[in-house]
Structure prediction request, 1604 residues.
Amino acid sequence: MELVLTDDQEFFRDTTRKFLGSECPIPKVRELRDNEAGFEADYWRQGAELGWVSLLVPEELGGGSVSGNGPSDLALVAHAFGFHVAPGPLIPCNVVASTLARSGSEEQQSGLLQDLISGAQVATWALTELPPHDALGDDVTVRAEADGDGYVLSGVKSPVEAGAEADQLLVTATTDAGIGQFLVPRDADGVTVTPLRSVDLVRRYARIEFDGVRVPASAVVGTPGQVADDLEHQLQIAAVVQSAEMVGAADAGFDITLDWAFSRYSFGRPLASFQEIKHRFADMKMWLEASHGLADSAARHVSRADADAAIAVSAAKAYAGQYLAELLQDCVQLHGGIGVTYEHDIHLYLRRITVDRLTYGTPADHHRRIGELRIAQAA
Amino acid sequence: MELVLTDDQEFFRDTTRKFLGSECPIPKVRELRDNEAGFEADYWRQGAELGWVSLLVPEELGGGSVSGNGPSDLALVAHAFGFHVAPGPLIPCNVVASTLARSGSEEQQSGLLQDLISGAQVATWALTELPPHDALGDDVTVRAEADGDGYVLSGVKSPVEAGAEADQLLVTATTDAGIGQFLVPRDADGVTVTPLRSVDLVRRYARIEFDGVRVPASAVVGTPGQVADDLEHQLQIAAVVQSAEMVGAADAGFDITLDWAFSRYSFGRPLASFQEIKHRFADMKMWLEASHGLADSAARHVSRADADAAIAVSAAKAYAGQYLAELLQDCVQLHGGIGVTYEHDIHLYLRRITVDRLTYGTPADHHRRIGELRIAQAA
Amino acid sequence: MTTTTTSTSVESVEEFRLRAREWLKENFPRSENVHLPLRAAVSDEAELAAIQRQRDLQRLLFDGGFAGVCVPTEYGGLGLTPDHQRALNEESAGYEIPFLIQVPTFVPCMAVLLEFGTEEQKLEYIPPMLKGEAIWMQFLSEPSGGSDVAAALTTAVRDGDEWIVNGSKVWTTGAWFSDYGLCLLRTNWDVPKHRGLSVFIIPIHQEGIELHRIEMINGSKEFCQEFMTDVRVPDSDRVGEVDQGWTVGTRWMFHEKNAMGGGSPFVTGTLHSGVQESHDPYVDLVRATGRADDPHAQELVGEAHMLGLARSALSARISTGMRTGQMPDNSAAIARLISAVAFQRQNTISLDLAGANAAATLPGDPWAEKGFSFLERQSSGIGGGTTEMARNNISEKVLKMPREMTHDKNMPFRDVPKGPPGN
Amino acid sequence: MTTTTTSTSVESVEEFRLRAREWLKENFPRSENVHLPLRAAVSDEAELAAIQRQRDLQRLLFDGGFAGVCVPTEYGGLGLTPDHQRALNEESAGYEIPFLIQVPTFVPCMAVLLEFGTEEQKLEYIPPMLKGEAIWMQFLSEPSGGSDVAAALTTAVRDGDEWIVNGSKVWTTGAWFSDYGLCLLRTNWDVPKHRGLSVFIIPIHQEGIELHRIEMINGSKEFCQEFMTDVRVPDSDRVGEVDQGWTVGTRWMFHEKNAMGGGSPFVTGTLHSGVQESHDPYVDLVRATGRADDPHAQELVGEAHMLGLARSALSARISTGMRTGQMPDNSAAIARLISAVAFQRQNTISLDLAGANAAATLPGDPWAEKGFSFLERQSSGIGGGTTEMARNNISEKVLKMPREMTHDKNMPFRDVPKGPPGN
Prediction:
């Protein structure tokens, strides 16, 4: 998280932190394990009122950032989400809101977008598919066939975050003109939603099958064949949120484990006094601070929408996905036996980091993406 | 190195060790840095008399193993080579001798092969090419065009071990019938040998250009288009020697560094008493013993020529290349400043491990090879 | 119970091997897939059924004359040599050898009894083990103790011919379905920690012992914690001398590591044996995900397989080294370390091979468990002695590097700091 | 020499920035490729010429009024703020800023003088530094000492108004072309090690100092060892109090880390700055080796670039954190650590990208140095304070974990063990 914030950002961050601290302390998160949606509608509406889905939407469309840099502001919320392993469709709602603000029709902007901002509706992005097609949108097999004014969608998306809870699905599909994006009501005919067992305790995913689902022309977002910039932007937003969220979760896990090292005695000494353990903490601290720096930098690049944004985002996501997962694993290791029990909290943070690492590209996927982009830049 | 040896093997190993200990102690190796060939002809002939180039050749062809398992016996020599960072074309002479014994013509077997065994001649294998063609023989651009009874070779091989010292080059080249292998005298018309600057202190390599080099039919080894088994065997022999050699070099580096940790005092205590350092030695010990185990297992598999030999060899070469290089780097680190001076010996072992890691496939190349083979096995 | 027949001439290893081969082939079920403990969350009923099958299979081995190869005949064993055991191990590859019942019942518990138990204890407790009737657990770790098992707080106070035990033990795998615990207790607080311990045999299911099952990250509940309140143990169930429990404990720990490293003469079969043979989980995964032709996936498959080979090659080498006296006994810690290190990297490879769809799955997905398995990856570096302790042992006991300075070595245990000042 | 003019109003940062931008553009050579010390083996003549160029460029900066931004005007500096320095740093990106002369001359040597020197010392020694006339070195490490610099054995014995110095210092980068050494010496053997040290200024080229150039693995000979025999130093060249040298040493070390972490207000430009901008060595390598389309190569290029970004992002964050008081000063050790860790992985990536042909090369090969560079990979984790010390500092000084137990803390230095018993 940025070390230097504007007063408005500090206030905004503190409000979200306070809200999450009171509305989803860890015991509440544990309770929500058995909640089908993983979050309560009221909680999400209150969060939306705090501005969680407004930040990437211009003021003239009913949104508004805190600092003028929406992605950086959103990263503050994401960090708090990670720190509290908070529930709620932060990633997909912001992805969809951002794209509707950029490329939505007037109807979409005055309708769904407003409901997303207010928290009255939830939307999600259906991009990823079953292997081997689950890349970064390079290999979309869900088809949208033109049919009169509208389109007919067929194929499977998995995993779709909040797929069973979302009112609307933004589906990335292949058309004859190239990739296009379509808003599909979750309860449309031909849509089958199968909830999945999630590695995260409260973040839910679904597998969604589209079996000849008909959508009207008004469901098209942007112009099929010309959505590359939207897609790239969506990926960047998702990865910015994930990166900041991983940092927040790792901050919490690190703090817990450092406390443990001071209070746990072995051989008459605190764990924190063993040199080998001290050096592991030094490495963890390095990974943590580097991840902070990269995540902040990624958010700033995306705020500026500059030429290096894609690389900065992939670097943050890949680094955090790789090193913060190792950091949390080492936190588990340092706890010994209780670290692998359900009763202890440390796994909650590892879960969140694991799903953030896996979805929207693994570290290796992002390494390759950076390499491709660098090589193309030099060409 | 195998823990259980036959009496004959022990005698053989001890003889080679003793010879290397007296003929190339470290000061001698340092001297040879300025020797053009990196080794002295007399030294090599004496080594050959000890059996260094006989082990893979059947008795009826003038060779003979010590234990019946030639590759395992050769691994004993290779371990001693690594431990002493000894000079001499151990890898290429054995590769060529082995293939001549398997597939050479009678003339080749009664001529060159006998000279290799006695040390009167040196031969080498020219397989690797300049990037991006330097894979494991999957992408051979040097061409051998049939021309009457013979062939005409064109193209570049690099790096070729002992390329400037070898009397004969076994060149792997592409013919119209597929891959073939050809014996080319180093001083043939059209052969240009450029000595390279080697990472190893005494192991020399060259870049060799073939510019329309004509060889007679008698130069062909095996049958063009049907040399796949020979090629695979050559790679296996090279990697078995490299693996054992890396283990020998790492054994020496580890011993030196452990001694150092006991004798060097910092903050009033020996380095060996610092827990973080102790744990690094524990990891090093693990890598070292695992490399021993894998290298021995690889040699045994190749001795038996069984179905898993290729995988066992690649595992040994990849593991040693990756982990023993890291082991040596950590030995350097533990020495601090003097570890990166020329005056200290530790870099000699790192050099040997580095060239063994790089040539005949990097760790990543061998990982991929294992993966391909495993997937093919399961098909 | 005492067997008085002793064979006048010992059966040769090769004869024994052939007889075992024959007998196994005729009488023993084959296994394509060895059950690995703690990998999957199964129901208690299924677990109990699996345990019963293990008991039955052990009985089958016993009745067939192949249980307790290296155990003296007077305690129900065969009185043969480690070479015979190795021959049996080699022959038993591919058979459904009852693993769960062997560790920790045979090693370390039976091994400790053989070394330190009274004649009466050996006669009473060992035959039921070999018959699959008694499953033993280690009551060793405590909630406060971590790797420092000698810092046991659970205390036995002498009361005539009995001892009264109070305190808590934890991380007993499957105590809920087991019968006895071998238990390390503090019997003296006024001497340094290693000099005030004693070892006892305690039946698990009795009044005064409350069993709590711990839920693990993956949902399994195989680990237990026992709360002991005024549990009475007869002095005849003490193993070794009073306050000399660490003498027992040192060997106990050695036997445990030996079991994990695959070097114990009391274990039949080799841990993990069947698994590598039957199928390659990485190949399965890349095929199931359609990535068999992807060079990146191939590279990961190869690396994972290499690590498996490294683990096997190292274990084999360590066994040979210890057997031939070329390596000190504590070298088993090297095998223990690589088992965790290799597993953890393999586990991470599986996660990445599975990709985004490992984040949330359906039961039938070929990658269904990869994400969940990643959550408990570190179990491999904690259970059965942490990797930290393994690294300590390798450096101090194999490489003879100086021991870690401790504050508590010569201090009465009562005075050793057990938490931050003021707590 | 004393400057009496003091500006009545300080120039604003933005004015200064614009003026610097303008001046650099008009007067200063641009650099596509900053010379990184110790990367290549060049001839002494070439090295001396490079050093002379650095001296000249520093003089150019001085004459232009841009040297010593944060140095008081009375010692030849500008008397401005760290914010001005940062503005200059940003503007100087892409220019051939003389790095070698800044570290260690300005930081830590000049920084130490500014903090602890007498008025006379500052007036005498600082202006020649800013003009590029005097290059300073740190006489800190000793052959016996390793990371424990406070364990200096080289001794100064008082003799009237002078001190007589005997012993040896080592790892002085380029002492052979430098002018002065800032030297940590033992002045008292009968107190604990930290309480018997003093700091002196010693001209390098004088009788009594024998200079030996150390050959490194890569053939470079920039490091020196100095053998000092009865070298006489006037007491007026002592920096700080007698026997209080560790007070100086602690700040000295802080400044040194600060320089490496890029956080010092006395360094112009940022280390490595030009390098990342001008070209990407990994991209160059895969293009030169025809592997730009190979996904495996792309992955490695991406990982290497990510690590470079991580290093930059972390350094920037640490600088901000220290500047705003949100992070303790010792946080520079985190930046120092990642610079080594990231470099080492990048170096290994280069090796593997180059492949077999890196084993032996011709000078013109695009991969010519990759194999040799791998040999000296660890230099990055040794020079300028080892990674071990960085990890100690991070854990003890940033995370406030307990300090390592030492034997020598309260023992007269004379009695501290300095080698195995009997040696």
Summary: Chain B touches chain D through 54 residues (CB under 8 Å). The two ends of chain B are 34 Å apart (CA to CA). Chain B has a mean pLDDT of 96.
